[in-house]
Each structure stands twice: as C-alpha cells, then as structure tokens.
Design a protein that fits this description.
- The chain is α+β, with helices and mostly antiparallel strands and 267 residues long.
- The protein contains 10 helices and 11 strands.
- The strands form 3 sheets. The protein has a 4-stranded antiparallel beta sheet with strand order 5-6-4-7. Strands 9-10-8-11 form a 4-stranded antiparallel beta sheet, with helices on one face. A 3-stranded mixed beta sheet has the order 1-3-2.
- The chain is globular and about 60 Å long.
- The two termini are 15 Å apart.
Length: 267
C-alpha cells in the first residue's frame, strides 16, 4: 500500500508545513490486517494497523487517519492515548484530510463508524466549521464503468484498470473533461462515468462471504445466490465493503436453527 502511505505523507506535509525531518513523522509503515478485531485500528512501534476491512471505504480511510494521529502523538511526547492532546492531533489531520478530499465529510458522518465512535464526532466538533472551503484541484480522476465494448480504446489511450472499483481510470485536467466524456459516449452510450479527486484514498478490498456449518438443506438456496462449494464451505466473491449488505441478504433466506455460520475471508 505504498500509494496510501504516500497520501498520508501528503497530509502530514499539509498539516505541518514547517516539518522538521528529525521528528520522524514520516517514519511509519501501514498494514491492513485480514483479522477481525474489537478495535478498528492500532498503533505500535511505528506501525499503523487497520482491522475490519469489510467496513465502508470512508471508515477505513478514517482509521488510517486515527492511527497516523497516534503515531505523530507518540513522536511528540513518547506516548499516545485517547486524551485531549491526541484529540488535537487527530482533529488537525482529519481537517486537512477532509479539506484535501482524501475522504468525504458527508460519507464520514453517515458511516457506521461515526455512529459508534464518539472520537470522530468530537474531532469534527473541534475542526469542522460552517463555510469550509475545500481544495480545488486542476485535475480529476475520470472513472469509466460498464466499458467492456471500448476496453481496447481505453487501453490505447492511457487508462488503467482499477480492480478495487472495477473501473478504467485516467487523470485529466478539468478543462479537458467535457471533451473526453463526449468522446466516450460517442463510442458507447451505455458507459457510466464518475470522478474522484487526485488524493482520494482508494481502500476497497477483495474478499469472500463464507457460509459454513450444517448447510445441506440450504445448498439450493446458496447456489441460487451464486455461492460455490469448496473445502467444506460455500463461498461467494465480493468486495469486502459489501459484506454486511450481502450477509443481510443471505441471512434473510437461509433456514433458521441449523447453526449455520456466516463470515468473511480475504484474498
């Protein structure tokens, strides 16, 4: 995840503009753990670890900011804990991350982590005021979906496949966007387009929703919902941030009282 570390370093630069290299703010690694945990993030020995990768992208991005704040807090005072000093560090970093659109404010306040974590609410009360002006970029990332029919054109013109979003992406200057979108629609009117800012944190992971246990009576249902059986488990490939949604769907149709277990595994 070199690109994620690079974006976090970008936020450090924007938050601490007179940065002294001797303070070790950028001396960290970031890891995304496949384990589930009661905590969403952890900091120890210059390593930022993020857990529970089935959460919404904005929640995982915020966990990166929280863990980074613990790292900087530790660099400053030799310890870190969820107190007022840490909150000040986190609030500063979160503010800059929102201003430069590494993550989105509206998505953050509507994510499940926001509902469950007082820390996020408190930090936003400190840093987020009315009439905040977001950073305006000269470029944007164009995302092209449903593009099978023009895949060859996209490859030839410098688009790169983004497996996280299952889109073809390319950065364009803002004043060139109308021209390229018109060209794409002229090639295929069924394509779908979206945009993201250059520093947006792309944090979507591949995984499998897994059903195991006494599933014999449920096998036809599982087949109908596109699960395949292997190694004693029923598995369906998904984007991890859809796990809770997929779990709710399959839970509603599986027979009750059989001790069936639903979980997630990552690639």
């Amino acid at each position: 995840m070199k690109s994620i570390k690079k974006e976090l370093e970008f936020i450090i630069d924007k938050t601490y503009e007179n940065l002294n290299k001797e303070n070790n703010y950028k001396n960290f690694k970031i890891e995304f753990s496949k384990k589930e945990s009661t905590k969403n993030e952890k900091y120890k020995d210059n390593v930022l670890t993020v857990f529970n990768l089935y959460r919404q992208e904005v929640a995982i991005a915020n966990s990166c900011i929280i863990a980074l704040a613990h790292h900087i807090d530790f660099c400053d005072r030799g310890e870190t804990k969820n107190d007022k000093t840490f909150l000040q560090v986190y609030s500063k970093l979160l503010y800059k991350a929102l201003i430069f659109q590494l993550l989105d404010y509206v998505q953050l306040i509507n994510c499940e982590d926001y509902e469950n974590q007082k820390l996020i609410k408190t930090a936003l009360e400190v840093c987020w005021k009315k009439n905040v002006v977001l950073q305006i970029y000269k470029t944007t990332i164009l995302e092209v979906f449903n593009s099978y029919n023009i895949k060859a054109y996209l490859k030839e013109n410098g688009f790169r496949y983004n497996s996280s979003y299952q889109s073809w992406d390319k950065e364009y200057e803002i004043d060139k966007v109308d021209e390229i979108t018109e060209k794409l629609f002229s090639l295929d009117q069924t394509v779908k387009l979206d945009f993201r800012t250059p520093h947006h944190l792309v944090l979507v992971f591949d995984g499998y929703i897994v059903v195991e246990g006494n599933t014999f009576k449920a096998k036809e249902i599982l087949k109908e919902y596109h699960f395949g059986f292997s190694n004693g488990k029923w598995r369906k490939k998904i984007k991890a941030n859809r796990y809770l949604y997929e779990k709710e769907i399959i839970s509603a149709v599986l027979p009750k009282g059989l001790g069936i277990k639903i979980g997630i595994e990552y690639e």
